[in-house]
Write a structure and sequence with these properties.
This protein has four helices and two strands; from the N terminus they run H-H-H-E-E-H. By secondary structure, the chain is mainly alpha-helical. The protein has one domain: Orthogonal Bundle (Arc Repressor Mutant, subunit A). It starts with a helix and ends in a 19-residue tail after the last helix.
Length: about 120
């Protein structure tokens, strides 16, 4: 990613508020980058540059206060991280529970499992 583009995205996001967010597709079109690349830029700005960029179903915006960041940024990111960890744990548990039987790795996931098996 072009560092100037990243800086320009940050400068633009600083003009957007909770009451005036910008949709991801509009922001990616504005800077002629893919939405995937934009998500990478936003992640980098949050994690590496410590910028309080919030996002919700209305779009991205720059938090003006700690309360705004906690409500629109950190709490949502922590919730998503928790959910992703739970998903990873579920997959790990499947294989841990099934390690003793190679055959059980190929159980039909749509078939109802009896609690008496």
């Amino acid at each position: 990613m072009n560092p100037n583009n990243t800086r320009n995205i940050l400068n633009y996001l600083r003009t957007r508020t909770k009451n005036n967010p910008i949709k991801m597709i509009d922001l990616s079109n504005m800077f002629a980058i893919s939405t995937r690349e934009l998500r990478h830029v936003i992640r980098s700005l949050r994690a590496e540059s410590h910028q309080p960029i919030c996002g919700d179903n209305r779009g991205y915006y720059f938090a003006r206060t700690r309360k705004e960041w906690e409500e629109g940024g950190s709490s949502k990111l922590r919730s998503r991280a928790k959910s992703l960890n739970e998903c990873a744990d579920g997959g790990d548990k499947y294989f841990t529970d099934k390690e003793t039987s190679q055959e059980s790795l190929f159980v039909d996931p749509l078939k109802e499992i009896s609690p008496y098996d």
